[in-house]
Amino acid sequence: MTRLRPLLLLLALLLAAASPAERLPRLGEGRVAAVIDGDTVELEDGRLVRLAGIEAAKPPPGRETERRWPLAEAATAALKGLAAGRGVRLHGPDGTLPDRYGRLPAQAVGADGRWWQGELLAAGHARVRTLPDGRELAAEMLALEAAARDRGLGLWRTRAYAVRPADPQRLRRDIDSFQIVEGRVLRAEKRGGTVYLDFGEDWRSDVTARIGRDALRAFAKSGLDPLGLPAETIRVRGWIGEHYGPTIEVTHPEQIERLGQRPPAPAGESAGKDDE
Question: Which among 124, 157, 190 is the end of a domain?
Answer without folding.
Answer: 157
